[in-house]
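Ex. 9. Protein: Aminotransferase class V-fold PLP-dependent enzyme.
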Amino acid sequence: MREAFGATFDVPDGYLNTPSIGAPPTTVAAAVEDTLVRWRRGLDTPADFDGAVHAARVGFAQLVGVPADRVAIGASASQVVSMVAAGLPEGARVLTAEREFTSVTFPFAARPGVSVDEVPLSELPGVLTGYDLVAVSVAQSADGALVDLDALREAAERVDVPVLLDVTQAAGWIPLDLAWADWVACAGYKWLLAPRGVAWLAVHPRAHERTVPVAANWYAGEDPWDTTYGLPLRLASDARAFDLSPAWLAFTGAAVSVPYLAGLDLTEVREHCVGLADGLLERLGLPGRGSAIVTIGSDDAAQRLAAAGVVASVRDGKVRVGFHLYNTADDVERVVSALA
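Predicted structure tokens for Aminotransferase class V-fold PLP-dependent enzyme:
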């Protein structure tokens, strides 16, 4: 067991795979286990999960700095991004970063008549003119590189280009204030330490009419229990109009993990995570990058780390590790020793 930031984590030494799957606090796993028992015994009704959905929605809103009535719930990053892609007109041009995670780009690339251009991440804020949308991750999945949010906001406002930000690899370790963005998408099973099957889309009021509820359903009604049968279409007036009917078990976990993270001092969390990541880079003779995600490009790094008990992943041809709440200097030492 590891104790960190007021929580207990049953995570093994050397677990550095948060960019793929976050390891939950024991309280989160216990909440899901309790729900499994109740499910097996037939003790819950659908309405019993509304409180969990609400708690997770409010927690996510706090993490990204938006009002809760702007937040829709979903199941995956690509699913919520698809509602933005569906609202683009024929001939729209979308700008993104090179090697961007495909859950961000594929929903747009799959739209007939919509073109998607890639540019280096560092150049993206400077080339927005002529585009109908920019879609980019705050922290890149492949290597943890961070977009310059201040520069992107200034450029987007200057040339009036809508912005979609994916915070799947950022929310939970970076303090975020993204009320200015048109859309903010996120999946919860990585840094937000929730089960897979939970996602969110924050929708700015000015972008509401340009967001299409491609999976419109009963749960997206103003009163979900009054929209279970019959026409006409009657969706909620706020971002709940874009809700997907929730995955109950997943949301019982998110209802614990997301408010927990929202209640932490995220500046302290970032200092902890980045301190470990940059400390590893320094030990490897490399400059710090200010990200919780580190990539290692040596030919046999994956094999050597696995042999040392380090749980990592390989992305875009490099070993990727990530440092979260439960990681310590001992994890850094384990990586350094394996690669020495």
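Check your answer against this statement. The first helix runs from residue 26 to 40.
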